[in-house]
Amino acid sequence: MKTKRIPIPSPAPGHERFLTVHEFGQGEHKAYLQAGLHADEWPGMLALQHLMERLIALEADGQLTQRIVLVPYANPIGLNQRLFGKFPGRFDAVTGQNFNRGMAIDSDDLIDRVRSELSDDGEANDRIVRATLRQMVEEQSPAYEIEWLHRTLLGLSLDATVMLDLHCDYDAMPHVFYGDHQRDQGARLGDCLGFPIRLEEDVRGVVAFDGTHTQPWVCLSEATGKPFSRPCFAATLELRGQYDVSDDLARRDAEGILAFLESEGFVRDSGAEHQPPSGLTRAINVDQVKVIPATANGLVTYHKELGSRVETGDHLADIVVLDADGPKRLAVTAPTGGVFFSRTHSHLVYPGASLGMIASDERHIEPGQQLSFR
Ligand SMILES: [Zn+2]
């Protein structure tokens, strides 16, 4: 393992920040993993610590067959956003920007740069595209600190063959997002992790960090019709809820990730096994996720457990109204059928607040707009 520190320009007099980066193995292909891009999401940070221990041992045994890069905390800016004992780590306090949005590469520019160089040799095409992507990141001229952070992370990750971005939800079943053009790899990843909910997205629309890695390849392929040997596979892993931080869960997730890396040819004979599925497997397009908004303020109590199959009209929750003249509850019913897989842990809700999500049978939002909510 080689460890390096990459500085991010100082945000204020007397301060310095840096990313810590661990690199393992050698080879043409790189697997890149990061945790905590949303700085208030900690289960992935612990999972990478367990994975690191396994990779150190495997490297010593000569079992790494390609490069693996770990960024154990991807957002030192957010880690320092402490406000009265809370960690508002999802948005940058300076710009208001979601740390996991707004870094997409200009695919039209990429197409213009490489179109005339591409041939019928997929491996050669891959190399041209990866070199150009690196060049495009290098040419970025950040101003805000969040832009420096994004440029630095993309400088490490954008030429990867496999990219896994570790997040978590508020209170949720483990689930995974990946492009709907990479269904087989995504399903294999879900199987390795034992994650039952798989959300497949069209990466040609608004993208997060994962889609930033896959969108250029999809756009290039559509625009040029040229072959590519091994475009980047990228996924966002949602490691349950924010409070699900335990060595037991983290060890399991690390083993699942390692099993996937082995299936992708980055390591051999790791002994990592597929993790047992933690619920009924359901793979849907992310457009079929139904977000359930609160229609009143009060305290929410749930009548359905995570992982429950619900039908339209089922009694899902109550909102306990605190400022009525007496005891009062408003029933919240399921607006659609499916698996209730995510809910809030911030129980004092208000109109518009999300009460949870159902992985449903029907489409609820326009394709490509799945990540336009912040
Ligand atoms: Zn997140």
TrEMBL record:
Its cofactor is Zn(2+). Keywords: Hydrolase, Metal-binding, Zinc. Residues 30-262 form the Succinylglutamate desuccinylase/Aspartoacylase catalytic domain. The keyword Metal-binding applies. One of its GO terms (molecular function) is hydrolase activity, acting on ester bonds. It comes from the Bacteria. This is Succinylglutamate desuccinylase. It comes from Saccharospirillum salsuginis.
